[in-house]
Amino acid sequence: MHSAYAHNAAAITRGAAANRRRKRWKQNIPLLILFAPIVAFFIIFKYAPMAGLIIAFKNYTFYEGIWGSDWVGLRNFKQLFSNPQTISIIRNTVFLSCLNIVVGFPFPIILAIMLNEARRQWFKRVVQTLVYLPHFLSWVIVGGMVVTMFAQETGVVNHLVKMWTGEPYPFLYKEGSWIVIFVGSGIWKGAGWGAIIYLAALTAINPHLYEAASMDGASKWRQIWHVTLPGISSTIVVMFILTLGHVMEVGFDHVFMLQNSVVSNVSEVISIYIYRVGLQGAQFSLTTAMGLFESIIGLVLVLTANRVARRFGQSLW
């Protein structure tokens, strides 16, 4: 008797749970319909193209197609990493990416804090507009501006250098100065746009914390150090993890617009290699293997960074 009662109670509980799920499903149908185009976009344009990675393990030809081409196993990877030029290209990519992260990552944070501390609203709006503007310019325009500014004979910068020293300096033809210009132009283009996220995070900080810190005699620097930075620390960690995912991606347009044959020792990166060998040289399998290697390294770095961040309670997921 008791067993039958318990069985009926369990059945009633399961039925009530099923009714709640059906009700929740019906309530969420409009949201699911809105979300469907996003899912379709990612499936069609992000996940479906991943099937093309299979040619990294094949001797791909246009005539035989992806499925008809012969399997070659890891031959493309062996060929890739037995080439000394590949090691140099990976080294350049990692070096420029790490330099972009180490030097460039703090700039949006600093810019956001400076804008947040500005008290004149008109000044804040003008500066915000000016620092956002470079983001909307393509690398073709930005690269043209940089080359024009630093041109050896006709550049504005070299005009001033010639006035001071009597001789122009080949900024774009020296490896050291090319790297500085490369990193600097990237910061100029992206810092303003990157600051938007930190500005949004700064609005979530309770103003009473600043008032309390001020009453305790904390200077502006102390307030930034003890209130502002801890308030946006979780955003900084998330953005840093996302940035690490692109550590093997220097970007094609940026390098392609600024590089020249004189500085090829430092400007040859994976994206340029894929363009020249894959598209111009029609070695699709080889460059797909390089792209797959690049993606795996990025994935490993993101997972590692997230695991480390999780120990401090700041993980992305």
Detailed description of the structure:
With 317 residues, the chain is mainly alpha-helical. The chain is built from 16 helices and two strands. A two-stranded antiparallel ribbon has the order 1-2. The chain has helices at residues 2-47, 65-68, 75-81, 84-104, 106-117, 121-132, 139-150, 156-165, 175-202, 207-215, 220-231, 233-244, 252-258, 264-267, 270-280, 284-311, and strands spanning 58-59, 70-71.
Helix and strand run: HEHEHHHHHHHHHHHHHH
**In percent, how helical is the residue content?**
over 70%
Largest sheet: 2 strands, antiparallel
Distance between the termini: 48 Å
Please give the order of strands in the largest beta sheet: 1-2
- What value does the Rg take, in angstroms? 27 Å
Low-pLDDT runs of 5+ residues are none
Question: How many helical stretches?
Answer: 16
Residue-averaged pLDDT: 85
Estimated structural class: mainly alpha
Please report which band the strand proportion falls in: under 5%, 5-15%, 15-25%, 25-35%, 35-45% or over 45%.
under 5%
Please count the beta strands (DSSP E, at least 2 residues each): 2
Shape: flat
